[in-house]
Amino acid sequence: MLPVSPEVKPNPLQNANFCSRLFVWWLNPLFKMGYKRKLEPDDMYSVLPEDRSQHLGEELQGYWNQEVKRAQKDAQEPSLMKAIIKCYWKSYLIWGMFAFLEEGTRVVQPIFLGKMISYVENSDSTNSVTLQEAYAYATVLSTCMLVWAVLHHLYFYHIQRVGMRLRVAVCHMIYCKALCLSSSAMGKTTTGQIVNLLSNDVSRFDQVTVFLHYLWVGPLQAIIVTALLWMEIGMSCLAGMAILVVILLLQSCIWKLSSSLWSKTAALTDNRIQTISEIITGIRTIKMYAWEKSFIDLITSLRRKEIFKILRSSFFRGVNLALFFAVSKIMIFVTFMANDILDNLITASQVFVVVMLFEALRFTSTLYFPMAVEKVSEAVVSIQRIKNFLLLDEISQCYPQLPSDGEMIVDVQDFTAFWEKESGTPTLQGLSFTVRPGELLAVIGPVGTGKSSLLSAVLGELPPSQGKVSVHGRIAYVSQQPWVFSGTVRSNILFGKKYEKELYEEVIRACALEEDLQSFEDRDLTEIGDRGTTLSGGQKARINLARAVYQDADIYLLDDPLSAVDAEVSRHLFEQCICQTLSKKITILVTHQLQYLEDATQILILKDGRMVQKGIYAEFPKPGIDFEDILLKTENEKAELPPGPGTPTLRKWSSSESSVQSLQSSSPSLKDAAPEDKDTENIQAIPSLESCSIGMVGFKIYKNCFRAGAHWFIIVFLILINVAAQVTYILQDWWLADWANERSTIYAMVFGQGNMIVMPDPDWYLRTYSGLMVATGLFSITRSLLLIYVLVNSSQTLHNEMLESILKAPVLFFDRNPIGRILNRFSKDTGHMDDSLPLTFLDFIQMFLFMTGVAGVMVGVIPWIAIPVIPLSIIFFLLRIYFLWTYGDIKRLECTTRSPVFSHLASSLQGLWSIRAYKAEQRFQEVFDAHQDLHSEAWFLLLTTFQWFAVRLDVICAVFFIIICFGSLMLAKTLNPGQFGIVLSLALTFTWIFQWCVRQSAEVEKMMVSAERVVEYMELEKEAPWEYEYRPPLDWPHEGELAFEDVNFRHTLDGPLVLKDLTECTDSKEKTGIVGRTGAGKSSLVAALFRLSEPRGGIWIDNISITSIGLHHLRKKMSVVPQEAVLFTGTMRKNLDPFDEHTNEELWNALEEVQLKEIIESLPGKMDTELVESGSNLSVGQRQLLCLARGILRKNQILIIDNATSHVDPRTDELIQKNIREKFSQCTVLTITHRLSTIIDSEWMMVWDSGRLDDYDEPYCMLQERDSLFYKMVQQLGEAEATALTERAKQVSLLCTSKDITHDDHVIMNTYSGQPSALTIFESTM
């Protein structure tokens, strides 16, 4: 959804007074609402002006631009880190002072604690501190504790906002860069990598900002603590500090080793996310080929490598956390040993001052400081990855400008260009042509010859190496693979322009969309859905065309828009739209529909990137010679010449519309605000955000997590280890208190100095203390490593189960959920479970057990402490439940508002050329910023709601500490110094760790929302089982007979019928053509056969019902070449045969049958040539042929070709169909197409109309009936072409009846050799 404006939904923080800000009262209404009901996106407050994505992004972009200019001037590589520091150092430094003050108050507290203990210790001495002074110290200590608590949560809140701003600003820059990427740069990155940058890499900024200040606060605090310790116990303190230095060095090395694995892990994550992205995008192909298991194995293998790195990294971190847990005890032990060796006398108050100073140092030096080292190291890696992306090549800003004299023109002179300069082979060479208003230039040529590249040159996407392109006028571009975004049909057509009813209706008529809109439930306000899945290929093509026409531009670049529609609609589009509506415009039409060339002002024939011939229609050779003959002639002439620059090459990245697979947005992809005309309407659909749970994360999710990670007895062992670690830890404190008091009377008698003590019986005490210390260390490390192993293993298991679950989900699931939404679970949510959850959970468990132990010891020493502890604990747990109801909803909103950010990015990459052609970059940037602002609203509430909770915790902690502090003083006469000291020191420690423990508990809850979202996807509705116990015979189907009885089919349960009352049979080995108007239900027949949704009625193949066998047993026995060409990143060989099921010879034979063998043999890597994302270094036609070869390789008894050669030139298509009939003469072949010449010599013809089988007969019989729909479709091609097709159909009919046979090889040869091509030039069209 689009964010609501700030005026409608103001942020109450802006008008809050000081007290409201300090105690976060302004959030009370939200908590009341969150407790009563589930929070919705509309409940969130508008993002603050200073946190808006546009403001933050432009600010950082300015510093980055300055850094790039400086680096260019100094001939250096620019530093993104320098730009970030220059942008944020002032505000960040201010909050750093808060961190220093916070830690300063923590260091002061042990001093006052010591003064209070000395009151109990020396109560009878003349030098004793008076009771009033003790109360004064207690007051100061309580005040220091309050000041520390306030500073602590203020620091964390504001420093996290700095991290949020940095993350938002970098995301803005990444998207801005993506809109400017050149074609060569797009070949160096992938959608998966950019999604990973936007999800996992930028999240490092949220973490590094929190801990970065401790790189200087930690050492400074250590120096101050050392000075205080020296004042207390002399030089023996240096022994403990030496231990700290050693452990810090050890920890820093471990953190650096851990973070060095991050760069390797990130590359593996990029690969995994990219592969999952391609799987989900091509899910229809994967399901029809029954490749789910193979792809599950592939992703599981990638995931295993990734988890191996993650586990190693997490183990390093776990050891560090274990050291943090035990380090203060080691330092105390070594210090007191040194003190004993030096025979120093120390008092009980000094013992506890030393202990508390080391405790104060523990957090900063052994937790925050090493964590800062780790986070900085990871952030440096992420900054380097982001910088590499930001330094990719950009498209030169050569957008067309309107000339002062108003003349519109496209002038190309001696144009030569390369997609890949390294190959030395130009994509286009020596092109020259001029097009003026009112002229139509038709560009034709074989597949892969450079036609789309010519349009890209005019767009400015293909930079010239020589020659020039002059373009004057506003451009509208129609891509070869239609680009639609999630929203309404109307919003796709308006594309940000104001809705003008008359113009709009004229465009609808010209683009033949009236009939389609009438069939939609909400007409043009019907939501298209992600990737346009609710539309047929022809409907998407016409909406794409209507968008261009509605823009009322000066120059129209049309990349083969007529191939996706049937003959009738094709003629309507050409006559009514191209020749009439665009009659006064400059129009360049790339086409394979040669019957329209007579109406073109100019004709340009391309072959291997060269201009074979150019001129007007009348200038071409005499009648009887077709365009294909001209191409063949030049090819023969070239064969006599040495190899030149015309050798076929791969483009590096040819068309964003046809290269970056769609991860369509679940929210509107545009704000309707055109740069040229701000008076626009917002006619946008507002799809809802994904559904989510309510309230706190349930116990079931925790149980699923641990059960997925290990067997129950390991969990029990883990619990026991945790208890043992805590018991040994607390026993050390108890032993220390006893050590401070035992035999104090004896030493007082010996030295006459009251309670002054030397460590009595050091062997006994030291042995026991060291034993407890070693046990604590061992238990801590075992606990850390075991818990991390369980949770990382759980993440791997849940990821694999989620993957299997979505691949078992019906196609409908992918139609209803944007790919960005699904990828969000595999990237960000899985990343949380991999990286953050194990350590956060470990930290929380350690702190929680420590708090429990501390409370237990205090109650054991002074039982009355239970009186305040119990009610305060009840208040705390009730407050926590109240807090988590709202906090959980906000975290879920944060997760759901993140998905549109990824989706919008990927949608923009898919339509990049269109966006740039329409000069819509600013609009798309605004929408991206709007999506970011919506996410920032949720993130801001995450920070402020925790601050609300923290303030109330401060009150509970303050009340608790004040009761303990003053209550202990009141009972001082009944306590010995050890008891008094241990209670006060533990109370102080309790207040220190309580905030961190609660913060970590909230973090665990936040991370478990990610686990909850993963578990949700493990419980998706599944399609029918892949395999049943009943299996068809191994040679099934041996005949290939198809039978349909009363078949009705819907793509969705509540959707309209797309196949209605189909009852028909096809004979064995029959060749059937399937035609009909676009959207008539032809592809739906394929979906029914493959059970992409379950059909009603009966479908039998060789007398076996398709619903009685498993989906894989069904789908593996039919070969299909789907309408959409789906290719994967990898080699040509891997795309043909992803799982190595065929020999090298079989692969080359398949390529030869689809006319690709020569092209691929000419490439340097041949079949090992790498294809970039979606195979975008091939033309669209070549991609279709590669997919056709993949389908042919399966060699099943039934072959279905679904409009798979629509973007291939007629002669190549003719040769392919000839080869298919030869190779599959003993198979049943169903061919769906809009090109009637392709299937005119089929034995039988199915004609579809509005979901019903209108006619099923021999083609020639249908052509004898002038009222038949097929006859009318043929007549739309023109009289000459219709005559030629009728003659071909007649000859096929005569041969079949006279010989009483189906087509054999001889007949096919006669048919093709005895008749002229269906799309010949002058004899056919004149």
TrEMBL record:
Domain ABC transporter: 410-633, 1042-1275
SMART domains cross-referenced by the UniProt entry: AAA
InterPro entries listed in its UniProt record: AAA+_ATPase, ABC1_TM_dom, ABC1_TM_sf, ABC_transporter-like_ATP-bd, ABC_transporter-like_CS, ABC_transporter_C-like, ABCC4_TMD1, P-loop_NTPase
Domain ABC transmembrane type-1: 98-358, 716-1006
Compartments reported by the entry: Membrane
Membrane-crossing segments per the record: 134-157, 211-231, 237-255, 314-338, 344-361, 710-731, 769-792, 837-858, 864-883, 949-972, 978-998
CDD domains (alphabetical): ABC_6TM_MRP4_D1_like, ABCC_MRP_domain1, ABCC_MRP_domain2
Coiled coil: none
Keywords: ATP-binding, Membrane, Nucleotide-binding, Transmembrane, Transmembrane helix, Transport
Classification via SUPFAM superfamilies: ABC transporter transmembrane region (SSF90123), P-loop containing nucleoside triphosphate hydrolases (SSF52540)
Name of the featured protein: ATP-binding cassette, sub-family C (CFTR/MRP), member 4
Source species: Rangifer tarandus platyrhynchus (Svalbard reindeer)
